[in-house]
Design a protein that fits this description.
heterodimer, A: 360 residues, Rossmann fold, globular, B: alpha/beta, 6-stranded parallel sheet, 13 helices
């Protein structure tokens, strides 16, 4: 009986990592959260420059339409927008990273990093994804439910899992020269000189209708803020918010709308930076204002104020207190009365604007 | 308000405390706010530092009668402490609303609680290449450098103390607008410190570096490179060496270098008497750089506006990782750290500190742009 021919047995490959690794930071999917995460991106950027750091390469993976938020400075060379038509998992796998820091909180993000076989996966243990992460933080809780803490705090703490210690939680945004020029062109196109004092108003919210304050209230507030000071008001917003912008501008004689102009997230940075005041809902541009210390009044409805309770030096958050149904975190008011927004008077917003402007 | 027993924690809690007092004042109830804390730290808020807490009552925690009296009258107790005893004390005193962190079974005695953040999974990666893991494990495998050991069960995540106090106050619906601790010594104290510096040969027209070189004998936070560092730095700057109460003996060892005309800078050792907290703040506000271990004085210096170089030994830098704009850190990860022990019980005594050299500290001082 002949002995079976044995195939040569390969020793199991030892899975070790070279000292000095490639770190992927997966950016959040909301503009505000991305801006809040900028101190983490900056710490990661410095770590690849610093010879003491274990990281030698950094990729900031971000949805392509959001990359403009981070463009214009030192992060440009590290941006890795997910190519259109490519699955995120395949893209992550192609980067051959040693570790990923997930600044998103979805189950899908962790699953994609897991399936991309990235050895170290750090993130918040939320949405039932803890088992997919090798390093994780369980946010504060009460009676088994997550307690809202400032998102900027959570992002900073997550960075510590991969050795990054941001210097502060103050957002940092760069602006390219082109974006600055585009913003000035936008202003001139509606008859506003870039050197002229103006209030910028962003009445929209990508999150949903529940975060929208009625346009007539925005218009009333703009009139009360701008008229006594002789300022102009410029109304802007994202794609699909043109009707809302026009409604505010139509009701306010001092306001002009950028609805007919080509707007983008990069030039919005300069619009915010150059304004005297940002009047905004609970949406991303609020964090642009935080980055540039632009005085800001944010009108908040169905959200937890604790989640955004950072960078409040030049910002006032105005909301209706004492509602039983608030905060509901719903995109559309489930009770149809929308009391958290409808009951919010323009006078309280104007008072808040006076306070932040007097402290500026 | 129950304040923590550590100096650094008291300073880091300043923005939350200030926001709380501002809110209380805006409601017209400032005289009904009482702060209980270590007697020697209450001076941080009594006006000598320009603190906004005027009108607030202060009760030293050593004054048992005063504390009990305050608790009996209290409607709300907000605990910035983490001990079981402090939660039990307010429960026993019958305070109706008791707010604090739910850790170590404290939740049984509190009405409004927040379970702290937890850490799970592997040991976090550290931002250094000083020691590859292979040298710890002895197996020749190279891997990313990690913390030497995990925290004890249930592994509360190391978080900046200041941020956690802000979260606690925010959870009560009170916004905290200023997040940087701020301490400002009075003009009178500043003048007194300047006079002492000038009498000791420090020329205030030129920059000086403050070394917080004192350390209690046997302390795990004691670094043995201070003398060498003082010699290296003295070649380029004026040096002021300070320490806290009880550290006078350690400071006297530095006297030998005083008046050495072969060095560019003067050296002044402030050991008799050592500075109090207000004087330390004044000294830091005027100095260029404050070099220290991860001790309470570090936070005084930061709050006074000084640039700092911080040497981490047995502590986890994440506990104090906020307000690092003007801070350069230096750490040497070891398999036994971070242990957070007051005295080192490892075979290789204080390996975490022994790995830090005066040259590395000098490099960090240079990175601060002085």
């Amino acid at each position: 009986m002949s002995s079976p021919v044995k195939s040569p047995v390969k020793p199991p490959k030892e899975k070790t990592q070279a000292l000095g690794g490639h770190l992927i930071v997966r950016a959040p999917n909301w503009v505000g959260d991305i801006v809040m995460a900028t101190p983490v991106f900056e710490a990661a950027r410095q770590s690849v420059v610093n010879t003491d750091s274990p990281w030698t390469k950094l990729s900031i993976v971000i949805r392509p339409h959001l990359a403009a938020v981070l463009e214009g400075g030192g992060l440009d060379v590290h941006l890795a927008p997910i190519p259109k038509g490519t699955s995120e998992r395949d893209f992550l796998a192609s980067l051959e990273a040693d570790a990923t820091l997930l600044l998103t909180t979805s189950f899908g993000a962790a699953l994609r990093a897991f399936r991309a076989a990235i050895p170290i996966r750090a993130g918040a243990s939320l949405s039932g994804r803890g088992m997919l992460l090798t390093h994780r933080l369980v946010p504060p809780a009460r009676d088994g439910r997550r307690v809202p803490i400032p998102t900027a705090h959570l992002l900073r703490d997550l960075a510590g899992l991969v050795g990054l210690l941001p210097e502060s939680i103050h957002p940092l945004l760069d602006i390219s020269d082109q974006a600055e020029l585009r913003a000035h062109e936008l202003l001139r196109s509606v008859g506003v000189s870039p050197s002229e004092p103006y209030v910028l108003c962003c009445p929209g919210a990508a999150f949903g209708a529940a975060k929208l304050w009625p346009p007539p209230r925005f218009a009333e507030a703009l009139e009360a803020i701008c008229k006594p000071r002789g300022w102009r008001a410029v109304v802007t917003g994202g794609p699909g918010e043109e009707r809302l912008m026009d409604a505010v501008a139509a009701a306010s004689p001092c306001a002009v709308s950028l609805s007919a102009e080509p707007r983008d997230l990069a030039s919005l940075k300069e619009l915010v930076r150059g304004s005297k005041l940002l009047l905004v809902g609970d949406s991303g541009p609020r964090w642009y204002a935080a980055a540039y210390d632009t005085p800001c009044v944010s009108v908040m409805g169905p959200n937890f104020p604790e989640l955004t309770a950072s960078s409040l030096e030049h910002c006032e958050v105005v909301r209706v207190e004492g509602l039983d149904c608030s905060p509901c975190l719903q995109r559309h008011c489930p009770l149809d009365h929308h009391a958290c927004m409808v009951e919010l008077s323009s006078a309280s917003v104007v008072d808040a604007a006076d306070r932040v402007l007097s402290n500026a | 308000m129950r304040m923590p027993k550590w100096l650094g924690d008291c300073v880091m809690a300043e923005p939350a405390l200030a926001a709380l007092s501002d809110w209380w004042r805006s409601k017209g109830f400032i005289e009904r706010m009482t702060v209980v804390g270590p007697a020697h730290f209450l001076g941080l808020w009594d006006g000598r530092f320009g603190s906004p807490l005027t009108g607030v009552n202060f009760v030293p925690s050593s004054d048992k009668v005063g504390v009990q009296s305050a608790l009996r009258r209290a409607e709300v107790a907000l605990l910035f402490t983490g001990s079981f005893r402090s939660a039990f004390e307010v429960w026993r005193a019958g305070v109706p609303r008791r707010v604090g962190w739910n850790r170590d079974l404290r939740g049984l005695f509190l009405t409004d609680t927040m379970k702290p953040m937890l850490e799970r999974g592997g040991a976090p990666i550290v931002n250094t290449q000083a020691i590859p893991m292979s040298s710890w494990l002895g197996d020749g495998k190279e891997t990313l450098p990690r913390l030497g050991r995990l925290g004890r069960f249930p592994r509360y995540a190391p978080r900046p103390y200041g941020s956690t106090t802000i979260e606690l106050v925010t959870s009560l619906g009170i916004p905290v607008r200023r997040t940087n601790p701020r301490l400002q010594a009075s003009a009178e104290v500043t003048l007194k410190v300047h006079e002492r510096l000038q009498a000791g040969g420090i020329d205030l027209k030129y920059p000086y570096i403050v070394l917080n070189a004192g350390s209690r004998p046997g302390s795990a936070k004691g670094w043995r490179g201070w003398a060498e560092l003082a010699d290296v730095l003295q070649g380029r700057w004026q040096i002021v060496i300070v320490g806290g109460p009880g550290e006078e003996e350690a400071l006297r060892e530095f006297q030998s270098g005083q008046g050495d005309l072969g060095k560019v800078g003067a050296r002044l050792v402030l050991d008799d008497p050592v500075l109090d907290l207000a004087e330390l703040a004044a000294l830091c506000a005027s100095g260029n750089v404050f070099v220290t271990a991860d001790a309470g004085a570090r936070h005084i210096a930061t709050a006074a506006g000084a640039k700092t170089v911080v040497l981490f030994g047995p502590t986890d830098p994440r506990h104090t990782a906020d307000q690092l704009e003007h801070t350069k850190s230096l750490a040497h990860p070891v398999p036994c750290g971070p242990c957070h022990l007051e005295s080192c019980d490892a075979k290789e005594k204080r390996a975490c500190f022994e790995g830090l050299s005066a040259a590395q500290v000098t490099e960090r001082v240079g990175q601060l742009g002085v």
